């Protein structure tokens, strides 16, 4: 069967279509037909995904309503905190299932989108783990998502190759590779190209379901030593959401006929509400957990979002909100103590720097920042860390290896009992620092450029010697929104001006000129910078803060074709 082209779908009426996905009853595929995609979207795989959707959709909808209720309460003045009703879990003596031997050592993990060349380079990078991303580092277009599933199936099968025609180079896997984790999207994101019973599927159930269905057997045989597959779970706010994931895992295991507790997952603690529920999240996932991770960029984003109605909690320039800020250090320390008490990994945060090949002095300075950050993490008790680029793996590996005494983790050796005294006040302490016009400019410049790349299919974007994903754009957006809403004074550069719509409009105009200069006229003309600028500026000046930039912008990358399914609703 040949491949259909975009032109076929744009011009042919539905009854003239030559190709179609073989979907089960009640499932409709609205994405472009492709022969490779059809192998992923076969009838049985879609039936599995539909089964997950039908069983869990009402619980997911309720969980999203609970998020809205928590937001309303916080907007009315309430502060997040530890739940008295689950004190017994926090104070109880229990542990999670033993860490699988296949992932006992996670000292350095590399992350990136589920793109073919990236997957090969990351698996070959020398890192212990590669987290293939369907979330913040991937623009969730139909092409990216389905191509990602094809790529991961080839990776798990060990057959993945990539021919770089520009360099005339063929990439393939080494004999020894990193262990593969996969991060599906968050609960809040839909998959508009797949309708189940007439409504969009839940994005993460599509990501998880297709990957699990096609790869669980091969993964357990080749990578997991009888366990797996392994996942990262993003954007959760409480243990209710963790419990849904646990039930999804149990249903998948039962359907596949594999033992309970085979699937393992690390949860990213990247929302402020979740920091107060770390024990509870681990408890709900205790048979499936392999730890927690400090998703620090999204955590800062969540701090602003949580306190969007609190004018007394304006953040300083985002470059000043690092891990030495008291509320950030408290979050990291509490995560380490919680994980080690429960017998699982406490993973550190992202080193987003990328090698600066044409400036050795700047490159050395960047690597020194990475070394300091990783040294802080390993001395605090983290069991591993994240890197965004293969060039950082040796630096991170050296720091962790030299400070962990040849042990695969610090679960037993660094209990951090001192962190048991961390209070709600510690976790909520206002960040210290100043606000500047340059901070407003940087937020605007980075936010627009990231969104422009995202709209054209790139979710992991090199900007100013850092590898940025959606989290940076989110921080930039919500900080601009916060400063605008409350007329924040720019006290950090001696100007003393207050942020308002006129100032912001001028900044947007000037930064667009700078982006055009830096990108070049031709790239700027061909790119989606003007569309990105409109979306970003609209969100920064909106009377009500949008929950997620990517959710708001998602419709701009949805392309519906006449039904690609052979089964009509």
TrEMBL record:
Pathway: Carbohydrate metabolism; glyoxylate cycle; (S)-malate from isocitrate: step 2/2. One of its GO terms (cellular component) is glyoxysome. Residues 25-87 form the Malate synthase N-terminal domain. It is found in: Glyoxysome. Keywords: Glyoxylate bypass, Glyoxysome, Peroxisome, Transferase, Tricarboxylic acid cycle. It comes from the Eukaryota. GO terms for biological process: glyoxylate cycle; tricarboxylic acid cycle. The active site is at residues 183, 469. Residues 437-557 form the Malate synthase C-terminal domain. One of its GO terms (molecular function) is malate synthase activity. Its EC number is 2.3.3.9. Gene3D superfamilies: Malate synthase, domain 3, Malate synthase, domain III. Its main location: other. It catalyses: glyoxylate + acetyl-CoA + H2O = (S)-malate + CoA + H(+). It is an enzyme of class 2 (transferase). CDD domains: malate_synt_A. Residues 179-429 form the Malate synthase TIM barrel domain. Belongs to the malate synthase family. This is Malate synthase.
